[in-house]
Amino acid sequence: MQVNTTRGFLWSDVETRTLLNIWGEQDIQAALDGNFRNSFVYRDVSRRLGATGFERTPEQCRVRIKSLKRQYLLAKEGNLRNNGQYHKICKFYDTMERILSNRPALDPQEFIDSVAGGEEAGEGLEEEDAEDAQDAYSESTGECPYPAETEVKLEYPTIPIPIPVKVTVGINSTSVRPHNSSQLASNLSARIPKRPRKRRAHFPMEKLMEQFLEQSVHAEDNFYRMEEQRLQAEDTRRETEHTRELHMLQMLGQMFSSISSTRAGSAAEPSKTAPPARAPVFSSASPSCKQGQSGHFRRPSAQTDCCAPKSQLLDPDPQAIVFERYYSSGSKSHRGMDEDFLSLVKSIVPPLTSKKHKGQDGRIGIIGGCQDYTGAPYFAAISALKVGADLSHVFCTKDAATVIKSFSPELIVHPVLDSPNAVEEIDKWLPRLHALVVGPGLGREDSLLKTAKEVIEKSKTRDIPIIIDADGLWLVTQQPSVIHGYHKGILTPNFMEFTRLYEALHHEPMDISDRQRSVTQLSVAMGNITMVLKGEQDLITDGGKVITCSVEGSERRCGGQGDVLSGSLGVFAHWAHAASAAGVGRSANPSMVAAFGACSLTRQCNNQAFQRHGRSTTTTDMIQEIGSAFKKLFES
Ligand SMILES: NC(=O)C1=CN([C@@H]2O[C@H](COP(=O)(O)OP(=O)(O)OC[C@H]3O[C@@H](n4cnc5c(N)ncnc54)[C@H](OP(=O)(O)O)[C@@H]3O)[C@@H](O)[C@H]2O)[C@@H](O)CC1
Ligand SMILES: Nc1ncnc2c1ncn2[C@@H]1O[C@H](COP(=O)(O)OP(=O)(O)OP(=O)(O)O)[C@@H](O)[C@H]1O
């Protein structure tokens, strides 16, 4: 597993709970209890955590556990159990209590004394168990507890390893010979006479303690917040570097293709259907420009494009040329157009290389999944993974979560959608997500739609591509302003959803005889958002020209095909916007390119699955075709 060490320091509750569950497992506790060298144990903890989708280094896991133990002990020592304050200090008190109650070596009183530096601190045992003994040991010796090259070990030594213990008596500290941890406590308690604890006035002391505990938790929070900021800055730096590298690679690619097409051009007459990358298509106003339409595939700013400076027009990128050819070729067959657009999609697909780390090719979030619908979010999320995203998160209701998890261990499932602080829980993940798909299996319950709406608002402020499908479109029909004019928004209605939305915005029945016109009108009414009207042919527009995807599909109309489309589109949207930010095909609207990619892929999957299974084809069969369909369309 490749570890992303730049991962944020802030642990979400779900992540912490998962960590605690792993840490509390019997074999882990047994391995920690009595072993001084616990680095390999935390390697295993980190590995198990990674398997649930949370990526943390062994050191991060160890530090987190240490901090939780401190909070737990502070809460316990503060005697806050009775007045109910303990949760303020240690949110996971009950879980910690359950786990730690089986670890006799831990003495809260002495731990708290050493933390608080109270008058008894000098006489207490400083290391409460082998784990903390190791911390003290590494601090004193400066030894790194995690030799980076060591393989992850799955078996723990069964014989406890001796622990060198630092004992503090008065102001002098002496090292005693190694003991194993179980002998340690009894030996020490026999050797070190303990002073009777002083009696304290109960009330003010408790109050003081409470204040002190709150302050220390607060200080710790601040520390983690600062760490979070530092790591986020590091993340941003890496991503910028990655984008720059991608840009360089793509520029090189364009240079090579331009060289080869120049060679081909010198050998033969330039073909009209395949002009060289630098053909002077824009050296004078193109026919489409004369008609007031942009040759570029940008959101409709026809006038600005037509009036663009000549230098810009003389230097079009190959994507613009493809769109230009399409717009000016009235007689071109759909097959020919599809091929042109497929080449655009190919240019945004990131190369597979061993230089990337997990997450760089896409972390996609799906908002959906409720008691009635568990298949839809699964189809969308698994499709995103199969297309090439590295991580796929599903944010669903509690009762849907177990079901969705049981469909696939590949998905990261958050049972938060119906929790009272759903927006807050999802918001924690937004900085990590590259695209959001809202709606598959969301249902139409008011509270869930409200949550979806707030998550959309938050995602817009983060400039994340948002795909809205299924019940998400129901929300848009009620409140179009939620996505109106968002340049990275894409709506994917089927005919029914489209009709509803059209009538909500235009207050009149739609003219079904001219779908191209209707889809353009609706896109314009929605602030030129990219719109995909699915059907026998998929119509894609951002309010300017309509492009048609007519890659051969199938005659099967089983439920869930739209979910494959929306999940795939999440990934394509991320790739297209990342490529555009890196300077690839700036003149094309990335959302349109992405939409064309996702529609083609879904239809191709459908076609391949239908060839194999005929009438019995289901969405699961389509998903199995994603790999080979992708290869056929975009990698051949
Ligand atoms: N396995 C799962 O978990 C799946 C869960 N899903 C989830 O279900 C939720 C509700 O989505 P939805 O699409 O069923 O609801 P809605 O928009 O009310 O449509 C209902 C009616 O509209 C009609 N109709 C539909 N298409 C049409 C067309 N092209 N042209 C003409 N008419 C058309 C048709 O009417 P009928 O013919 O039955 O009269 C249809 O019955 C949503 O969350 C979604 O994600 C799905 O993803 C499937 C897999
Ligand atoms: N008549 C058709 N012929 C060929 N392909 C079609 C046809 N209708 C839809 N499709 C394709 O199926 C995919 C899903 O479209 P569909 O209309 O089934 O979505 P949906 O109703 O939203 O799906 P879901 O069942 O997931 O809600 C699209 O990629 C579309 O191209």
From TrEMBL:
<keyword id="KW-0547">Nucleotide-binding</keyword>
<feature type="binding site">
    <location>
        <position position="441"/>
    </location>
    <ligand>
        <name>(6S)-NADPHX</name>
    </ligand>
</feature>
<feature type="compositionally biased region" description="Polar residues">
    <location>
        <begin position="283"/>
        <end position="294"/>
    </location>
</feature>
<dbReference type="GO" id="GO:0046496">
    <property type="term" value="P:nicotinamide nucleotide metabolic process"/>
</dbReference>
<dbReference type="Pfam" id="PF01256">
    <property type="entry name" value="Carb_kinase"/>
</dbReference>
<feature type="domain" description="YjeF C-terminal">
    <location>
        <begin position="341"/>
        <end position="633"/>
    </location>
</feature>
<keyword id="KW-0597">Phosphoprotein</keyword>
<comment type="function">
    <text>Catalyzes the dehydration of the S-form of NAD(P)HX at the expense of ATP, which is converted to ADP. Together with NAD(P)HX epimerase, which catalyzes the epimerization of the S- and R-forms, the enzyme allows the repair of both epimers of NAD(P)HX, a damaged form of NAD(P)H that is a result of enzymatic or heat-dependent hydration.</text>
</comment>
<dbReference type="InterPro" id="IPR017953">
    <property type="entry name" value="Carbohydrate_kinase_pred_CS"/>
</dbReference>
<dbReference type="GO" id="GO:0047453">
    <property type="term" value="F:ATP-dependent NAD(P)H-hydrate dehydratase activity"/>
</dbReference>
<dbReference type="GO" id="GO:0110051">
    <property type="term" value="P:metabolite repair"/>
</dbReference>
<feature type="binding site">
    <location>
        <begin position="494"/>
        <end position="500"/>
    </location>
    <ligand>
        <name>(6S)-NADPHX</name>
    </ligand>
</feature>
<feature type="compositionally biased region" description="Acidic residues">
    <location>
        <begin position="120"/>
        <end position="134"/>
    </location>
</feature>
<keyword id="KW-0520">NAD</keyword>
<feature type="region of interest" description="Disordered">
    <location>
        <begin position="120"/>
        <end position="143"/>
    </location>
</feature>
<keyword id="KW-0067">ATP-binding</keyword>
<feature type="binding site">
    <location>
        <position position="563"/>
    </location>
    <ligand>
        <name>(6S)-NADPHX</name>
    </ligand>
</feature>
<dbReference type="InterPro" id="IPR000631">
    <property type="entry name" value="CARKD"/>
</dbReference>
<dbReference type="InterPro" id="IPR044822">
    <property type="entry name" value="Myb_DNA-bind_4"/>
</dbReference>
<comment type="similarity">
    <text>Belongs to the NnrD/CARKD family.</text>
</comment>
<dbReference type="GO" id="GO:0005524">
    <property type="term" value="F:ATP binding"/>
</dbReference>
<feature type="region of interest" description="Disordered">
    <location>
        <begin position="260"/>
        <end position="304"/>
    </location>
</feature>
<keyword id="KW-0521">NADP</keyword>
<protein>
    <recommendedName>
        <fullName>ATP-dependent (S)-NAD(P)H-hydrate dehydratase</fullName>
        <ecNumber>4.2.1.93</ecNumber>
    </recommendedName>
</protein>
<dbReference type="InterPro" id="IPR029056">
    <property type="entry name" value="Ribokinase-like"/>
</dbReference>
<feature type="binding site">
    <location>
        <begin position="534"/>
        <end position="538"/>
    </location>
    <ligand>
        <name>ATP</name>
    </ligand>
</feature>
<keyword id="KW-0456">Lyase</keyword>
<feature type="binding site">
    <location>
        <begin position="553"/>
        <end position="562"/>
    </location>
    <ligand>
        <name>ATP</name>
    </ligand>
</feature>
<dbReference type="Pfam" id="PF13837">
    <property type="entry name" value="Myb_DNA-bind_4"/>
</dbReference>
